[in-house]
Amino acid sequence: THERICRYIAKESGSVVVSVGYRLAPEHKYPAAYEDCLSATQHFLHHTEHYGVDPARVIVCGDSAGGNLVFAVSQTLAGRSDLPKLRAQVLIYPGLQALDFNLPSYQQNQGVPLLFREHAAFFALLYLNGHAMHMKEVLEGSHIPPDMRLKYSKWLSPD
User: Fold this and answer.
1) Which of 32, 52, 89, 141 has the smallest count of CB within 10 Å of its CB?
2) Do 145 and 68 fall within a single domain?
């Protein structure tokens, strides 16, 4: 689905673009997609000379669930001394939190196409466990234990 944009970015920027075809939910539950992206990124970083790429100029990018995967892979690789450091990460409307679907941004944009609030929750559930049978609980916020909600409240608060 992204080949056209990858070709455009490569052509216009004079860059090498590697697009990872990771396994998708619901057939492949978490952490399959993450493992695929991590493996592909590690392989690429180990072999940059083979691709004619300066290891100091590698940038990772993703949109939606791909943005989530880029973030997770970047965090995993941040402490590695055996691989070149990533120069940057580009996150395009990344799915970064599924703890609270009632934050102001979800409320304000709940009816805005392309990713309605219910769709975001649905896809998060598919990604994590392969089905959406707990949709109501997730939208209400009752899927998070009170102690965890309290622990993360300073980062996930409407204030």
Assistant:
1) 52
2) no
Q: Which residues pair with 124 in a beta bridge?
A: none
Q: Is residue 97 part of a domain?
A: no
Q: In angstroms, rounded to a whole number, what is the distance separating the alpha carbons of residues 51 and 65? A: 26
Structure tokens at 26: 């619901």
Same domain, 31 and 77: yes
DSSP state of 84: P
Rounded CA separation 133/39 (Å)? 31
Claim: this prediction has a pTM higher than 0.70? yes
| CA–CA distance, 7 with 30 (Å, rounded to integer) | 28
Cβ proximity of 62 and 69 under 8 Å: yes
Q: How far is residue 10's CA from residue 2's CA, in Å, rounded to a whole number?
A: 12
Token readout for 96 is 């970064």
Amino acid letter for position 13 = S
Terminal CA-CA length for the chain: 38
Number of domains in the chain: 2
Quick check: is 45 in a domain?
yes
pLDDT in tens, 144-159: 899 988 898 888 777 7
